[in-house]
């Protein structure tokens, strides 16, 4: 028995979801909605289906959940003949199922898009399904909390700034210990620096880049914020824009010429490819990944790496956001070839690489842990085939997932970041001491 | 008698064209894709790739793995084009024998592919789970159109029957998934633009990857 209040809330959710669904149909979405012929050829391009061959894990099936609601909302004939044309009313139940599918069984990796003979952008539809689900209050609570926490950090900036300044003193000492350079610094709030570097929460995305910034003599400053944007995982345009705006405003405030994003897949794609669309114009500063900077420094001879510091066989996992969604394929390979002795490719790689299963915010959703470890099986197979000792991933979510897969499947590998290996190769004598 | 069927066919074609125009107008009335980000490589190159080498069956893992399904789909579509060509030529009684023979072979291959496609859709649980009634009805109608075209090419006296089947297909077209052909060109263009803009695909990009000699799967 549903109470009156509960019924009212459900009705409001349906109204909100219907409104967002109607508003979210841009030309590319309209095209993706109507171009699919349900040939099913996308099925085994998806890591979910490859690991668990269930019809629900076919990309076209996921997209069809949104398509059915869309047809019901926008096509009067389909509404009258739902069985013939595949239409379903927007109800509390259909929204529950849509949300479960969009947040639980798709990492938005776009491997299916690249493999669709028609070019149907299923990830675009799943993203809209997430927007609809979020508007209907059906997003995973943890993603909403993390997005709100990022926004709250801006609201309490002075307090966080004091904390960060304290933490950075410790990190500076780590940078000096690694580099042996007693003058190495981690500047904060430095005006007119060339580079505003935006890392993640955690020393591992600040110390190795800081070592390199100091080694090459870069003119840089550390951001007060972390690059993660959980609003993107929610596909909530308001929260996503607000989180991105913090970095935009900071870059403008310090007059940075360039914003450099740490080793994080979704943060790079967000600032480089998505956020300018929300702001309606190109940013007045350049946006790059730290990977691109490192590759340039290697090419220019500014970052002199000694591969003997990393003699173990190493493979590289193409993060879906950096690679398939971001176009960064050769840059990490350039750095790796300079930093390690035995680099081995996974098969397939680059734009055809399998998602590790940790994308789309899934690593943060504890209820999905078992499923995401199961659907990491294709990546596990790829890693095993390389016979490597180290797996490099330039995305924090990928690293968490690969670490969990390592444990679950007994891969016996180490999971490292690109900057971490580069720093070892930058100071080989330190690497030898710690080996 | 033939005149009546011709009128029915023309009315049906008008309905189909009006319907397609309406869907197109609906799609184009939506907000356009506005991407102000500076491109990494070339969106134009990506679009060119999407409509040329990117459509080659060996370029995609999916079509490499499912080459038989892909080939069946290609033959089916060849049959549709042959059917449309037969329809366009049908007012003229004297179609050269060689041309009729070529059309007949393509139509036969298309019809067999259409029937096989229907059997596969019924037989494979994955496809059944994806399908609604229209997913059976649309290919069935189109296959009937191809078969009717084949019958007409063999027996030109079957023109009235061909027109009747073609009319049924054309009348249903705007409401069915057959209209995907309208969106196909837009979808490929968006696909090429998005991934070309970001430097993921492109004619030059593919060449660069191949020249590096790494196994790209």
> Secondary-structure element sequence of chain B?
HHHHHHHHHH
pLDDT average of chain B, as an integer?
A: 92
Q: What does the overall shape of chain B look like?
A: globular
Report the β-strand fraction of chain B as a percent range.
under 5%
Helicity of chain A, in percent? 55-70%
Largest sheet of chain B: none
Oligomer: heterodimer
- Kindly state the percentage of residues in helix of chain B: over 70%
Distance between the termini of chain A: 64 Å
Mean pLDDT of chain A: 95
Radius of gyration of chain A: 23 Å
Q: Give the end-to-end Cα distance of chain B, rounded to a whole number of Å.
A: 59 Å
* Largest Cβ-defined interface: A-B, 60 and 64 residues
So what's the overall shape of chain A? Answer: globular
Regions with little confidence, pLDDT below 50 for 5+ residues of chain B: 207-217
Rg result of chain B: 21 Å
What does this structure look like?
The complex is a heterodimer of chains A (435) and B (217). Chain A has 435 residues and is an alpha/beta fold. Chain A is built from 22 helices and eight strands. Chain A has helices at residues 4-23, 27-35, 47-51, 59-74, 76-80, 82-85, 92-104, 111-115, 122-135, 141-155, 157-179, 207-216, 230-234, 237-253, 265-279, 290-300, 330-339, 369-374, 377-386, 396-409, 418-426, 428-434, and strands at residues 195-198, 220-222, 258-261, 286-289, 313-317, 342-344, 390-393, 414-416. In chain A, strand 7 (390-393), helix 20 and strand 8 (414-416) form a beta-alpha-beta unit. The radius of gyration of chain A is 23 Å and the shape is globular. The model of chain A has no long low-confidence stretch (mean pLDDT 95). The N and C termini of chain B lie far apart (59 Å). Chain B is mainly α. Chains A and B meet through helix 2, helix 4, helix 6, helix 8 and helix 15 of A and helix 1, helix 3, helix 4, helix 6 and helix 7 of B.
